[in-house]
Amino acid sequence: MSSFFCLCIHFKGLIMLLFCPSQLRAHLGTTPNIKHIVVGRCYNYISLVNPSSRYDCEEIWRLFEEAVVHQASCNVKVEDYHQMFIAMPHTWPCDRFLFWSKTRALMHSYAATDRHIWTLEDTLVGFMFNDLIWCRHKERPGFDFSSCPEWSSCQNHPVYSLWRQASQTFAELACGNITVLLNGSIANAFDKKSMFGSVELDSLNPQSVDYVNIKVVANLEGPYIESCSQGSVLDLIQILRSRGFSWTCTDNDQTLMILQCIQDPKESACQTCANSLSHRQCLTSN
Ligand SMILES: *[C@@H]1O[C@H](CO)[C@@H](O)[C@H](O)[C@H]1NC(C)=O
Ligand SMILES: *[C@@H]1O[C@H](CO)[C@@H](O)[C@H](O)[C@H]1NC(C)=O
């Protein structure tokens, strides 16, 4: 179960650091100042990040609070957030949707190289709730700032339910060519219990998605556990086939490798490039 939770996090890309199971401990309560953070991020989003968007930030907060404080803290269902999601419709240009699982750091540098790539964190809901925790107080209406239940101990954790709905909405909008970034240095790179494997994949529409371009990326120093021809990635390909998607799969995407080398230039896999007389030559020889 614990990998499941870590995942969720990931989709949050957003949430991730705080949410790995060891860190989402019972003693962590609702993020202090959550209202100011959420409403402030919302205004940041509509004023600076995506100025063409029109959202009512106060109303979104009200609907969020209503969803959370009217249920028991372990019983906030996906449906409880529906009104809030209705208040934040999104449309996205096609061809730029990026999904990922257990590749959060790499996803961030990848998304940073191309501002037209859309991840869940670029949606209003992803932007607003990234890294936050919340739950209702056990005895009275209102948030509990001293502790929240662990993700794994709840049937319907308020944080999980929100990310689940956010991931589903994001995947339903996906169109054109989409990219899926998977981690080739771990077993189960494609994990059916992850947010990608359990929610997003099911929500992709073969009618609107032209190609699912899978990129399996291992750490520069290895280990090399899964690839396009090995391990759980084959299960993903099988599912895509059976649902009628066109797909491609790449093991050694050059851009991603260069991004990894920027983080870690001393790694031996990057030395060929560093020592090469011609960078062009080095890049094409990889
Ligand atoms: C793959 O997962 C491991 C373990 O979580 C992580 O340390 C590593 O950075 C990930 N690799 C990539 C390329 O994202
Ligand atoms: C979509 O992906 C396919 C397969 O990788 C590629 O041939 C095609 O050029 C891509 N289309 C766009 C618009 O990027």
TrEMBL record:
For the keyword Zinc-finger, the answer is no
Gene3D superfamilies named in the record:
ADP Ribosyl Cyclase, Chain A, domain 1 (1.20.82.10), NAD(P)-binding Rossmann-like Domain (3.40.50.720)
Protein known as: ADP-ribosyl cyclase/cyclic ADP-ribose hydrolase
What are the GO BP annotations of this UniProt entry? Answer: positive regulation of B cell proliferation
Q: Which GO terms describe its molecular function?
A: NAD+ nucleosidase activity, cyclic ADP-ribose generating; phosphorus-oxygen lyase activity; transferase activity
Q: Known EC number(s)?
A: 3.2.2.6
PANTHER family in the cross-refs:
ADP-RIBOSYL CYCLASE (PTHR10912), ADP-RIBOSYL CYCLASE_CYCLIC ADP-RIBOSE HYDROLASE (PTHR10912:SF8)
Q: Which family does it belong to?
A: Belongs to the ADP-ribosyl cyclase family.
The signal peptide stretch is 1-26
Species of origin: Scophthalmus maximus (Turbot)
